Amino acid sequence: MKLAITYSILALIATIANIGTQDLVVRLYDGTFSLLLAIIAGTGIGLVVKYVLDKRYIFRFRADNAAHDGKTFLLYTAMGLVTTVIFWGFEFGFDHLFETREMRYLGGIIGLAIGYYAKYQLDKRFVFRSATA
């Protein structure tokens, strides 16, 4: 139960970083493809924040060296591609259906919550398996 609570808190931190970055990008740039740029930027920031938090506090992973850490991050990112489809589907879907910033962010939050649950399962099984075995 403690792990689930910790994971939820860390996922919330990464969600705030993601949505906060999106909001900042949209406020700074309102031109062509601003929404896509904002979502890509938020996804990137959220990915890095989540990786750092997960490897330290959830999986207690220690890389042997920088190359090992880089390889682990690439695998972590690859697993994230699957869950990014879920996240983006909800966010773009809510944006299309409701056409408001608030509902788009709600869709993003819902998509991130579902995606983070799936991501934990993938990371535990494929990315940090040696750390949790």
Report on the architecture of this protein.
By secondary structure, this protein is mainly α. The protein has one domain (2-132). The chain contains five helices and no strands. Helix 2 crosses helix 3 (66-98) and helix 3 packs antiparallel against helix 4. The longest helix is centred in the middle third of the chain and has 33 residues, at 66-98. The chain is globular, with a radius of gyration of 15 Å.
Q: Strand count, sense and closure of the main sheet? A: none
Structural class: mainly alpha
Our count of domains comes out at 1
Sheet-strand content, in percent, reads: under 5%
- The mean pLDDT is 93
Number of helices: 5
Measured distance between first and last alpha carbons: 19 Å
Envelope shape: globular
Low-confidence stretches: none
**What does the radius of gyration come to?**
15 Å
The number of E-state strands comes to: 0
Question: Which range best describes the helical content: under 10%, 10-25%, 25-40%, 40-55%, 55-70% or over 70%?
Answer: over 70%
- The arrangement of helices and strands along the chain is HHHHH
Summarize this structure as a short list of keywords or feature phrases.
133 residues, mainly alpha, 5 helices, globular
Question: How is the topology of this model organized?
Answer:
Elements: H1 2-28, H2 34-58, H3 66-98, H4 101-127, H5 129-132
Helix pairs in contact: 1-2, 2-3, 3-4
